[in-house]
From TrEMBL:
The name this protein goes by in its record: PD40 domain-containing protein
Lineage of the organism: Bacteria, Pseudomonadati, Bacteroidota, Bacteroidia, Bacteroidales
Source organism superkingdom: Bacteria
Similarity field: Belongs to the TolB family.
Gene3D superfamilies the record matches: TolB, C-terminal domain (2.120.10.30)
Organism: Xylanibacter brevis
Length: 489
C-alpha cells in the first residue's frame, strides 16, 4: 500500500513537472517574422573569439523568450527565460568548442503583450573565429564628467567569465585621483598608474613589489601623464601635459579639454631617472600620446603647432609622427617621420596604436583637438604601414557617436574599442575582429551576466587595456598614500 502511494505521488510529481515545462519551457510560436529580433545587446551577425563569456541578451517587455543555437541545422543548445537569455557558462563554452571557424545560427522567439501566442524572428548568425582573445582586460571606472570625481578605481575583468575584481581604488587611497594605468607588454605582473592628490605619485608594480616615484623631481622636472611602456621593459615614455577645460552652455558638446603645453619625456626604470630630447620640449609644438612600435625601434606620438587656447581650439590639428629610438643608449634618433599629416589630410589624430605585427597603425580621428572622447564625430581610422594606404575600419565605428580609445590584443586580431554609441554619454567596451585579410568585422559589446547592467551601471569604462592574467595588487598599496615618504624612490 505504501509502495502504491509513493508511486502515485511520484507520477503526480512528474506530471506537475511536465506541466511546468510546458508553461515555461521551450515553446512553438504561433507566428513567424522576417525581421531580426530586437535583442539587447545587438549580437546579430557579429564575430566573436572562442574564449569569450556567454553573450547573454534580452528583449524588453518579453514575458517569455527563448533561443535555439544551431550549426548546420543541428540544435546544440536551447535556452529560455522570462526577459533575459541567461546562457549557462559550461554549456556556452561547450558550444563554442563545437563551432570554432563556423557560424552558429540563433533562432529567437518571444511571447509578450503584443504577441501572446508567440512570434519567431528571422535567424541571425554568430561567427566564432579561431583566433582567441586575451584572458583579461583592465579599465578605470569613472563618472563621465571631467569637472569632478568622487569614487574611482582600476578594475579587471576576465573575458571568459563574468568575474570582475578591483585592482586599486581611491577607497583605500584617501580619495586620490587614480588614472593612466599601463602594463609592460600586457603583463599582469608589471604595471603602473598615477595617483594624484595628497601623497600621490607614479606607482609601479613589479612582480609583487611596489614603489612610488615622482618624475617632477627628476631631469627636466615635468609631470608624467600619458604613458607607453617600451617593449623591452626598461623605459616608459610619457607625455607631460598641462591640461585645461572649457564648458559650453549649449550644443551637443558639453566641454572641450585641451593642453596649454605638452612635451615628451622618458623614464628609465633601471636607473630611476627622467631624460628628454630638447626637440620635444619646446613651446612651438605640442607633443602627446606616445606609443612604441612592437620592436621598440620607433616612438610614435601626436604633434601639433601651438595655438592660442581656448580661442583657437578648432585650429588644433594633431598629426602622427615617429622618431627612431636606440634602447641601448636610451636616445632618440635624428630621423622623424610623419605617418598622418593633419594639415594635408584633415582632422586631428590621437591615440596611435601599432598592431603587434607592426603592420597597422590604428588611431582616433576627430575634427580638431586632443580629447576626442567629447567629440561625437570621433571615429577610428587605420593605416597599413607597409603601403601607407588607409584601411577600411568603418565597421567598427558608430554614426554620430564617439568611438575613441582603443587597444590591440596580443595576437593582433582583436581591437578593443571605447565607444559611447549606446547613449552618447557613457563609454563602454566593444571588441572588433580584424581577420587575416585585413577586414574589420562588426564589433560586439562586452558581455555581462545581466544585460541590463550595461545601462544601469552609471560609470564609464576608461582606458581599457588587455592583460595576460589577473593582477594581484599588494595590500601595501594603501601605505603609499598614507605616508608621504613611503617607498618613494
Amino acid at each position: 500500500m505504501n509502495d502504491l502511494k509513493q508511486m502515485i505521488i511520484g507520477v503526480g510529481a512528474c506530471c506537475f513537472l511536465l506541466f511546468l515545462m510546458g508553461c515555461g519551457g521551450m515553446r512553438k510560436p504561433a507566428k513567424q517574422s522576417q525581421a531580426l529580433p530586437g535583442i539587447f545587446p545587438d549580437y546579430t551577425d557579429v564575430t566573436i573569439p572562442s574564449n569569450i563569456a556567454p553573450l547573454n541578451f534580452m528583449i524588453e517587455g518579453a514575458e517569455h523568450i527563448q533561443a535555439r543555437f544551431l550549426v548546420a541545422e543541428k540544435e546544440l543548445l536551447a535556452v529560455y527565460g522570462d526577459e533575459v537569455i541567461d546562457i549557462p557558462e559550461d554549456d556556452w563554452q561547450h558550444l563554442l568548442q563545437q563551432t570554432v571557424e563556423k557560424k552558429m545560427q540563433v533562432e529567437v522567439a518571444v511571447w509578450d503583450e503584443k504577441h501572446p501566442d508567440g512570434i519567431g524572428y528571422r535567424p541571425f548568425n554568430i561567427s566564432v573565429a579561431k583566433d582567441s582573445i586575451d584572458p583579461w582586460i583592465a579599465y578605470r571606472l569613472i563618472e563621465p564628467g571631467y569637472e569632478a570625481w568622487q569614487f574611482m578605481g582600476i578594475y579587471q575583468r576576465e573575458l571568459g567569465s563574468f568575474c570582475e575584481r578591483e585592482i586599486v581604488s581611491n577607497k583605500t587611497t584617501t580619495s586620490a585621483c587614480i588614472n593612466c594605468h599601463h602594463f609592460d607588454r600586457r603583463s599582469a605582473k608589471r604595471m603602473m598608474f598615477h595617483a594624484r592628490g595628497e601623497n600621490g605619485g607614479t606607482i609601479i608594480l613589479d612582480h609583487g613589489q611596489l614603489k612610488k616615484v615622482d618624475p617632477k623631481k627628476m631631469g627636466p622636472q615635468k609631470g608624467a601623464v600619458y604613458p607607453a611602456w617600451h617593449p623591452e621593459g626598461r623605459y616608459i615614455a610619457f607625455s607631460s601635459n598641462t591640461t585645461n577645460q572649457t564648458f559650453f552652455g549649449q550644443g551637443r558638446q558639453p566641454l572641450e579639454v585641451y593642453d596649454r603645453a605638452s612635451d615628451l619625456i622618458l623614464y628609465d626604470t633601471k636607473e630611476n631617472q627622467v631624460t628628454a630630447d630638447n626637440r620635444f620640449l619646446n613651446e612651438e609644438r605640442m607633443e602627446t600620446f606616445p606609443a612604441w612600435s612592437p620592436d621598440g625601434k620607433w616612438l610614435y606620438f601626436c604633434s601639433a603647432p601651438a595655438k592660442k587656447l581656448p580661442d583657437e581650439r578648432k585650429e588644433m590639428h594633431y598629426s602622427i609622427l615617429r622618431v627612431a629610438f636606440d634602447s641601448q643608449t636610451g636616445l632618440l634618433g635624428e630621423q622623424v617621420d610623419t605617418l598622418y599629416n593633419a594639415r594635408m589630410e584633415g582632422g586631428s589624430a590621437s591615440f596611435p596604436r601599432i598592431s603587434p605585427d607592426g603592420r597597422y597603425l590604428l588611431f582616433t580621428l576627430a575634427d580638431y583637438g586632443t580629447f576626442p572622447i567629447w567629440h561625437n564625430e570621433a571615429d577610428l581610422k587605420m593605416i597599413d604601414l607597409t603601403t601607407g594606404k588607409p584601411v577600411d575600419v568603418d565597421a567598427w565605428n558608430a554614426k554620430d557617436q564617439t568611438d575613441s580609445y582603443h587597444a590591440w590584443s596580443a595576437n593582433g586580431r582583436w581591437a578593443m574599442i571605447a565607444s559611447r554609441r549606446l547613449d552618447g554619454r557613457y563609454t563602454r567596451v566593444y571588441f572588433g575582429y580584424l581577420d587575416a585579410n585585413g577586414k574589420a568585422h562588426k564589433p560586439f559589446l562586452l558581455p555581462q551576466k545581466d544585460p541590463r547592467s550595461n545601462t544601469l551601471r552609471l560609470k564609464s569604462y576608461n582606458i581599457p587595456d588587455f592583460v595576460d592574467g589577473r593582477v594581484e595588487m599588494p595590500q601595501e598599496v594603501v601605505e603609499l598614500f598614507r605616508c608621504p615618504d613611503k617607498l618613494i624612490q
